[in-house]
Structure formats: structure tokens, C-alpha cells
User: Fold DNA-binding transcriptional regulator, MerR family from Micromonospora mirobrigensis.
Amino acid sequence: MNTEHLLSIGGFAMLSGLSVTALRHYDEVGVLLPTWVDPATGYRRYRPEQVREARLIRVLRRLEMPVESIRQVVQDPSGPPAVALLGEHRSYLARRAEALAELAREAERYVKEGVGMPALKGSRIVQVTVNATDRDALVAFYRSAFAATFNEEIGSFEFGTWPSQEFFLLTIADDRHPGPTGPARFGLLVEDVDSAHQLALDAGAAEIYPPVERPWKPRSSCVADPSGNHIDLYQG
Assistant:
């Protein structure tokens, strides 16, 4: 191949705004492949025409779009699948913004009133561990369905903050945190059970039963996450 007009990875990084490390990663995961790789040295080279695609990837990553979604968008940025993915991600960002705004309000209360918790009376569940058949898919599901924040360091989703009465951990089983022998089941109190139920289905959950009124508990529904764990949703 004539490589005279190809860009080195360093030059391509400067033009695209992506780091050399990022370009190597996107090659490894199949998002942005170099035009030519030197079989002797492994050096990557790119066509100048690929700069536009790389800049699009940079924008999508700034929006924190998952790599798998980026891969689909760059294949046909104007196509219906790309538009749908962008719409879904916009909705996720909006829910996350609402969650962050609530955290900001909570921080403001701490500034004014000091950090503290009411004396605990009785007991309540603050952690549930679930198994995962596909860890990445499960993380993506809870992020999309419930705008949950995943703390990689502790392998858990954090609902609410510590110290507060809303504090709750949903832990994904691993070597450090063994899970149950089968699928888990737990409940979440939500602002609007019908909306939360539909968001969960849109994010990839399977419906166990739709929102229903029962005389002995709040309006509720049940879905299963991508790993088969059951989530009961209760109207708050």
C-alpha cells in the first residue's frame, strides 16, 4: 500500500482531538480502525478523511455515550438507528441531570444544616447483591432505567448518598462480593411506578407483571433485569 499520504497516529491525534491512547483503544474495540498498520512495527496510519469520523467520536464520548452505541452511530450518523440511540441517550442524560440536581440540593441542605442523620429506629435494608450474566449489560441497564450511579471501586450502584436516609447499595456479585445461588429479588420505591416501569422495559427489562393496584400495598409492578433478577417497583 502507498502510505505517502497517510497520517501517523500522532498527527491524526492532533487533528482529531483524540489522544493516541484513545485511538489505540478505539482500534482494539472496532470503533475506529486505522487504514494501515505496519506489520513490522505495528504503527497505525490513517486517511485524512477519517478525521471527521474521529471528531464525531470525540463529541459522542464527551456526551458519555457508551462505546457500543458510538460504534452504531458512526456507521450511519443520519440513519434511524443512530437517531434513536441519540434520543435514548438524551433521555438518560436528562434523568441523570435530575438526579445530580437532587444531590446538589442535598449538599446545600448539608451546608446550611450540617451533615448528620436522624437516630436510626429499627432496621432497614441498605444493600442487595445480585448476580450478573453480563456485567457490562447490567451496568448499562441500571444506568439507563434508573439513572443510577455505578461506583466501580466498590462494584455497586449508589442510590442516595451517605449519610442520608436514602442511602442504598445495589452490588453486582464478583469475587469480592459473592452473590446468591440464583437470581435475586428486591424492591424500589419510585416517584411514578407507571413511568419507571416503562423506562425499565425500554432499557431492556422483561415484564413480570404490569402496574397494578392491590389492597395491601402501594400500586406496584415487577420487571426482570437482563440477568434475570426481579425488581419490584412501588409507587412512592
Q: What stands out?
A: The longest helix spans residues 80-113. The mean pLDDT is 86. The radius of gyration is 22 Å. The chain is about 40% helix and 20% strand.
